[in-house]
Amino acid sequence: MTLLQDQLSTVSDVTAEQRAQRLSDAGAAWGERIAADPSAAALTYRVTGKGVGSVATEIRAGKHRFLVDEPGALAGDDVAPSPVEYALGALVSCQVVVFRLYAQALGLTIDEIEITAEGDLDVRKLLGIDETGRAGFHDVRVAVRITGPDAEERYEELRRVVDEHCPVLDLFANPVPTSGGLV
C-alpha cells in the first residue's frame, strides 16, 4: 500500500541543531501564547471516520487522511493497521515527541530513539463470548531504546519526566470521561 510510503516521503530530514531550534522555538511560542492568554492552552482535536470496505474506516484529521482496517480473521480486508495497532502507534509516536521535547528542555542529546509498544488483548469481550473481561488492552508494555552521549541515569530521569507528561500515555493509564450517542 502506498499510503504509508507517501506519508513517510513527506517527512523531512533535520539535523540535531535544526530539531533543537524547532523545539526551542515551539516551546517559547507556546509559553508566550499561554502567558498572554491562559485559555490558549485548551485545545480541542476533531477526527472524523467514514466506514469503507468490509469494516475499514477512512479517517480524516485536519488535512490528513488515513485508513484503519482489521485483518481478515476479524472480517477486514487487511489493507491498513487495526484500531488497536493505531492506538499503540499513537502511544509510540507521542512518546517520541515528548522524549525529544524534554531532552531539549533538560539539555540531553538523543542521537537515535526507537520505541516499541506491545499490548495484550483478549477478544472474548469484543466478540461477545465472555462479558466479564475488558474489551481493550489488559496489559501494555513500552520499551524505549535511546542512544546518545549522556549518562544512562540522565536518560532514566528523562524517561520518568516523559511518563509524567505524555498525553497519550495518560490516556492509556487513566480513565477519561467519554460520552457519545447517535446524532
Look at the helices and sheets and give the structural class: alpha+beta
For the biggest sheet, the summary is: 3 strands, antiparallel
> What is the overall shape?
globular
Q: How many helices in DSSP terms?
A: 5
- Sequence of secondary-structure elements: HHEEEHEEHH
Q: What is the CA-CA span between the terminal residues? A: 34 Å
Radius of gyration computed on alpha carbons: 19 Å
DSSP strand content: 15-25%
Average pLDDT, all residues? 93
Give the strand tally. Answer: 5
Which blocks of ≥5 consecutive residues have pLDDT under 50?
none
Going across the major beta sheet, what is the strand order?
A: 1-2-3
Helix content: 40-55%
Features:
two-stranded antiparallel sheet, alpha+beta, 183 residues
What does this structure look like?
With 183 residues, the chain is α+β, with helices and mostly antiparallel strands. It has five helices and five strands, in the order H-H-E-E-E-H-E-E-H-H. It has helices spanning 2-9, 16-36, 83-106, 152-165, 167-173; strands at residues 48-52, 56-61, 64-68, 112-121, 137-147. Strands 1-2-3 form a three-stranded antiparallel sheet, with no helix packed on it. A two-stranded antiparallel sheet has the order 4-5. A hairpin with a 2-residue loop joins strand 2 and strand 3. Helix 2 packs across helix 3, helix 3 (83-106) crosses helix 4 and helix 3 crosses helix 5. The longest helix has 24 residues, at 83-106. The radius of gyration is 19 Å and the shape is globular. The two termini are 34 Å apart. The model has no long low-confidence stretch (mean pLDDT 93).
